[in-house]
Amino acid sequence: MLVALVCIIAMAICTGGFSEDGWSAETPDKVTGREGKATILFCKFPHPQLGYKGQNNTGPVTGMKGDSVTLPCTFTPPDRFASSLTVLWMKGDPYTECTVFNHTRPLAADSRVTDSVTVNEEDRYGLIGNLTQGDASLRISDLQLNDTNDYFCHVHIKRRRREYVIRDVTRLRVVAPATILELSAVRDGITGGTIVCRVEGEPPANITWIDPENSTVHEDSSDTTVTRVPGKYQTVGRFLDPTLRGTYSCVAVNEHGREVRQIRLATAGFNYSNFIIGMFCLIPLVKFLLLLITGIILFIKIKD
Ligand SMILES: *[C@@H]1O[C@H](CO)[C@@H](O)[C@H](O)[C@H]1NC(C)=O
Ligand SMILES: *[C@@H]1O[C@H](CO)[C@@H](O)[C@H](O)[C@H]1NC(C)=O
Ligand SMILES: *[C@@H]1O[C@H](CO)[C@@H](O)[C@H](O)[C@H]1NC(C)=O
Ligand SMILES: *[C@@H]1O[C@H](CO)[C@@H](O)[C@H](O)[C@H]1NC(C)=O
Ligand SMILES: *[C@@H]1O[C@H](CO)[C@@H](O)[C@H](O)[C@H]1NC(C)=O
Ligand SMILES: *[C@@H]1O[C@H](CO)[C@@H](O)[C@H](O)[C@H]1NC(C)=O
């Protein structure tokens, strides 16, 4: 009876205390205990639903590849009874999160913990705020495109015998200017070839081509194809069967940048058909020359 009452109270604390700031509580439907014995009550807090913007409604943070960015996380500053504080930053979806940063700091002189950073993936993370003022904002340096994710800030404060956890979530989006990684000509069988332009960019880059006659060939032309490489933030443009001799330009553009690179085709494409056509034109010419020479020889002989 008493256990059931305690359970209800605990459940009320769980749900009442956290649901309003985006967190939901999970408690077992039923907890059984024997009178006079101790029992354990679970109170699990899964992550907030995606789209929950954090207490200050800061919204997603956007950074450029290679730059640094700060993910905000503020919490109520620990009072003088707090003995230690641990800041955990995790990334991932709510079910496969992994810890990228773990900093523990003693707050009281007699605390048994030492000031230490136990996890700092690739040494790219750092706290830049003042923890004692309630700022656990995280700086991430040398941003990579695959850093795009949801980041969860958990601050564990030990106070007397209890531990308080404050949680927040921020979405990070990394963008990158359109950059040409590769422009090359690929011979493909005897029918012709392809010019390949591989571009990195986020949002994905648009690719247009300029042919040796200076006309612009758009993505949707029948001479070209465009494919996006999933998970690699790359777009691959192909110019099929280039038939003109001269310089082709690949123009890559997105809202953060533009790059143009050129490639020269010395022969008229790789298209042997031109060569074959040439050969067919040569045969009558050779025949004509042979006839001419025979004629001249005959003429000389007859004269003799
Ligand atoms: C929210 O963030 C802004 C700017 O980052 C700050 O000026 C403001 O004080 C914050 N508000 C609260 C309630 O924390
Ligand atoms: C973070 O570091 C503290 C202190 O070293 C350790 O007790 C704790 O288990 C660590 N937590 C995680 C999730 O790595
Ligand atoms: C952080 O804030 C506390 C309290 O306001 C102050 O005593 C301390 O000097 C600050 N630390 C830094 C590194 O600014
Ligand atoms: C993210 O991208 C970087 C650079 O391209 C690479 O070194 C790293 O292994 C990638 N990380 C993951 C988890 O895929
Ligand atoms: C191609 O176009 C550019 C700009 O429109 C111009 O400057 C250039 O002279 C043109 N080249 C040829 C070969 O027509
Ligand atoms: C890329 O192409 C799409 C569709 O053709 C167009 O809506 C968009 O504005 C283009 N983006 C840039 C940066 O040119």
TrEMBL record:
The record ties this protein, via Pfam families, to: I-set (PF07679), V-set (PF07686)
Q: Does the keyword Transmembrane helix apply?
A: yes
Return the InterPro entries for the record: Ig-like_dom, Ig-like_dom_sf, Ig-like_fold, Ig_I-set, Ig_sub, Ig_V-set, SIG15
Q: Which residues form the Ig-like domain?
A: 48-170, 177-266
The alphabetized UniProt keywords are: Membrane, Signal, Transmembrane, Transmembrane helix
Superkingdom: Eukaryota
Tell me where the transmembrane regions lie. 275-300
Write down the SMART domains for this protein, in alphabetical order: IG, IGv
Kindly indicate where the leader peptide sits in this chain.
Answer: 1-19
The cross-references to PANTHER family, in alphabetical order and at most eight, read: SIALIC ACID-BINDING IG-LIKE LECTIN 15
Task: Please identify the protein, giving its name as recorded.
Answer: Ig-like domain-containing protein
